[in-house]
Specification:
single chain; 129 residues; alpha+beta; 4 helices
């Protein structure tokens, strides 16, 4: 998910107006070693378009690159929701751990100090209770 307070992703990518363009594309890449021991790269792409009076943020299809047993590179395009389901399986970590611990934004890093009901829900998500 996106960092908090970024207007649905618009503030996460450069403002097209500052570049004098109508749209800006961005990529986030993560290189990791999968559970099977092979090197993998996930690329998430996004785009911000400046319309007449508003900006729109759109996540584009992602790419999962890996190397097979013979050393050949294999690239597969995925929808964003499919990548969200595949990454925890490939990393061998639950989605809740990735969301709340590994990729926790600094503004959300004090979640262990939140009130009881919110904290309980977070722990239930993490420990699948």
């Amino acid at each position: 998910s996106m960092p908090p307070g970024n207007k649905s992703g618009q503030a996460f990518v450069h403002d097209p107006r500052s570049l004098g363009q109508s749209n800006v594309k961005a990529n986030i890449k993560l290189r990791f070693t999968g559970r099977a021991g092979n090197s993998m790269v996930v690329v998430r792409s996004m785009e911000v378009q400046q319309k007449k009076s508003t900006m729109t943020f759109k996540q584009l299809d992602g790419v999962l690159r890996s190397t097979d047993r013979t050393g050949n590179r294999v690239s597969m395009g995925h929808k964003c929701s499919e990548l969200d389901r595949q990454l925890p399986l490939l990393l061998g970590v639950s989605g809740a751990i990735l969301e709340h611990v590994v990729f926790c934004h600094q503004e959300d890093s004090s979640w262990p100090l939140q009130e009881g009901a919110v904290l309980k829900k977070r722990f239930d998500d993490i420990f699948d209770s």
